[in-house]
Amino acid sequence: MNDPLFSVKNRIVAVTGGLGQLGKQFSAALLGRGARVAILDLNVDNTELPEVFQQYRDNGNLVLIGTDITKRDSLEDALDIVCNTWGEAPHGLINNAALDSPPSAPPEETGPFETFPVDSWDRVMDVNVKGVFQACQVFGAKMAEAGKGSIVNIGSTYGIVSPDHRIYEYKSKNGGKPFYKPVVYSASKSALVNFTKYLAVYWGGTGVRTNLLALGGVFNNQDAEFLSGYCARVPLGRMANEDEYNGTVIYLMSDASSYMTGATIMLDGGWTAW
Prior knowledge:
Rossmann fold; 7 helices; 274 residues
């Protein structure tokens, strides 16, 4: 993208969970447009680096930092590495790291609301809410001090509307146990909606903008029955491809979105438009 309005060239962006399915997409899209990217991921030492990233690591535009976003000192260490590597404060933060309970999750996490485990609630909230809160405290404060920056929180349609449990009913057929999308995922993603607005107001005068992307489901070789039920609920008739959110991320990291803050952008194929 050569339009300077959408340029992210030389901008420093930290991506939490940057080695996950979407994190790799966001990172690659930014790197391909000249940004400098710090991938913050718990699994840096245990995940094979995609080949496309190696060139950016070699030319100094990519740094990988083992980071636990539930621990503030780990985030502070990551920020120090970013600032020391490139000599300036980051321009962007993408809060992508999160825990979810997919259809293959253990039955105790996908059973009835009344028996949802408290320890599972705490574990997910620790990453999905506390982790985002701390990353914003550490990286956002540095951006506010520098007088510029863009924070993108990654939300979900299930943080805007309730899950449609009917698409999981097939799992209880033939003696299977009922499946419910866990309450904690919805609660954690819902919390980010107003947290994003809070930061937009709090840092409004500093040049730091904060927005949220409410994403629909991404195709990842899910089973045929799930796909059939899910896609029937989407006006576009399909799940998202993993690269279809990249354009909006570039927009929010560029000057094209300079007057946007506190917004929730729906990217769900029309799921919430019914």
